[in-house]
Amino acid sequence: MKQNNLTILAEQTSQVYAAVNKAIFATIINSTILTIVLWPVISHKILLTWLTSILLVSIIRSFFTYRYKLTSPSPKEAQIWTHRFLLGSIVASMIWGTSTIFLFPTDDLTRQVFLAFVLGGMAAGAITSLSYIKLAVYVFLGFTLVPLAIRFFYSGTELSLAMGTMITLYFVVLVQSAKQSHTSNTQNISMRIENIDQERSLNKSERRYKILLDTATDAFFLYDLNGKFLDVNNQACQSLGYTRDELLTMSVSDIGVESDSKYPNLTWKGLKDGETIQVEGIHTRKDGSTFPVEVSLGIIHVGDESLLSVLARDISERKRVDKMKNEFISTVSHELRTPLTSIRGSLGLLSGGALGKIPNKAKEMISVACNNTERLLLLINDILDIQKLESGELEMEFKNMELTPFLKQSVQDNSSYAEQYGVSLILKPIEQNVNIYGNKDRLMQVMANLLSNAAKFSHAKGTVEISVKANDDSSVRISVTDHGQGIPKEFYSTIFDRFTQHDSSDTRNKGGTGLGLNITKEIIEKHGGKIAFTSGTDVGTTFYFDLPKL
Q: End-to-end CA distance of the chain, in Å?
């Protein structure tokens, strides 16, 4: 029994070290982004000290991960490596926890929300990377979320109290999820170990085959190109509720496979030798219940016969955690938008003189508050759009659209914004009218993002040109060109990433959420198109996107 516990611990330790590099990578990326976002409002010395600390810990953890993989420790040595991993997790989580003490932007609600967003995301990610070791994930969740909740409660405002309450509930849900994930992982490991012990009496060739199948945590199916099952593993039987003999009399249609357009039932007939595709689908159990799966399909050859090898991984827990994350983001954003809309309306009334004449100094303060409220609402709306795009909840009804009147309306709608920067929008003549199939509102959002960016980064009294060109591949290209400062080359690879803005003082003065281009790219791709850009220093930038003609 003791030896079996050591083996389980060794497997758990192996799993966390296998996943730790992804966690370390996420830590480095998120801490760097957080430092950039907080740079204008937090002491640079404190920020750099905090960032250096977390990077140093990440390097040390990477070193121990390398040592672990290099030495391949025995089950008896697993406890030592577990303690080392725990120590690294505790130190890393403590540093994240200190961000709510030293990096909390007291007077900047936008960055408070962003800090909560980063810490919430790191906590959700810990479920996957740390749940094999219960103490590690509990410590990480405690040090990252509890201080954050306390900080919001300490702030005392109604909005802060709401944030603190939601983070506390989020913490409770994540702890429960971590507990379930740990139990499930331990059971899977125990099952794999038991399967290995049972198969030791088989001959060498059969043992290799059975271990490959029955120790897998994923369901395995082997079937012919007509979809009839030829072999399955234990996990397939357990996940679907059938016996092996029952499954071998069935075909893939009997388990009610459903999926997106990438995975119709006969897609495998188009697979090439050695090619593997990975898609998401839905399997139906014997009792009629369904669960989501991540499916990997590939063609194998046995003699002259071509067969389909399939691995199906149950991703119910991943979907549940993703749903919690999306609901958390959506709830926080909605809870912020309601009071901010009211604040914006009140400030507008004050600014318009509804309560009488206001001193000039007070007008300036009200103007600043109005501008910051608008920026915060824009950020919240962009975050909601991102969340809807990720979850597939962003509804887009496609219709036949005439391109010329659409572009004219886009220019008209954005001209007043461009005039604030002394910039003129010019729609170049369109040789022939083209129809596209799209969602007008979302494409208007695309044009608004591109035109506002072009106006912001144009020189005073400059122009922004909008042009249309028919491509040879039955698509049409729409281009937005400015003659401003251009985009530095070091930002080319990340320009469509979230929260990406090149960090010059000029850019900061222009404002923006850093989400517009990411949302634009997602919308264009939902239309079956693609977006790109060309740029030159002090020459200007052209963003262009291609859409299929109707």
A: 68
Q: Judge contact between 497 and 518, C-beta under 8 A.
A: yes
pTM, entire model: 0.41
Overall fold of domain 399-548: Heat Shock Protein 90 (3.30.565)
DSSP labels for 103-148? S--TT-HHHHHHHHHHHHHHHHHHHHHHTTSHHHHHHHHHHHHHHH
Cα 115–121–123 angle (5° rounding)?
105
Q: Which amino acid is at 340?
A: L
Taking every pair of C-alpha atoms in the chain, what is the biggest distance, in angstroms? 94
| 59-65, long-range: CB < 8 A, 24+ apart | 60/88, 61/20, 61/24, 61/88, 61/92, 62/21, 62/24, 64/88, 65/17, 65/20, 65/21, 65/24
Which two three-digit tokens encode residue 348?
């507008």
Query: What crossing angle do the helices spanning 2-38 and 44-71 adopt, rounded to 10°?
Result: 150
Q: Which residues pair with 72 in a beta bridge?
A: none
Residues 6+ apart with CB under 8 A from 173: 324
Q: What is the 3-state secondary structure (H, E, C) of 450-495?
A: HHHHHHHCCCCCCEEEEEEEECCCCEEEEEEECCCCCCCHHHHHHC
Give the three-state DSSP class for 306. Answer: strand
Could you list the pLDDT tens digit for every one of the 550 residues in the chain?
Answer: 444 677 777 777 777 777 788 888 888 898 899 889 889 888 899 989 999 998 998 888 888 888 888 887 777 777 788 888 888 888 888 888 888 888 888 888 788 888 888 888 888 887 877 777 888 888 888 888 888 888 888 877 788 888 888 888 988 888 888 888 878 877 877 777 776 666 655 556 566 666 666 677 788 888 887 788 888 888 888 888 898 888 888 888 888 765 444 444 445 556 666 677 777 888 888 888 888 888 888 887 777 777 888 888 888 888 787 777 667 666 666 666 667 777 777 777 777 776 677 777 777 787 777 767 766 766 667 666 666 666 666 667 888 888 889 999 999 988 888 888 899 999 998 877 788 888 888 888 889 889 988 998 888 888 999 999 888 768 899 999 999 888 888 888 888 887 665 544 444 455 556 677 888 888 888 888 899 999 888 788 999 999 888 7
Task: Report which DSSP code applies to 535.
Answer: E
CB 122 within 8 A of CB 144: yes
- The CA-based angle 348-350-354, given to 5 degrees, is 105
CATH superfamily of 217-314: PAS domain (3.30.450.20)
Backbone angles phi, psi at 300, to 5 degrees: -125, 160
Spatial contact of 251 and 223, defined as CB atoms under 8 Å apart: yes
Strands 399-402 and 435-438: antiparallel
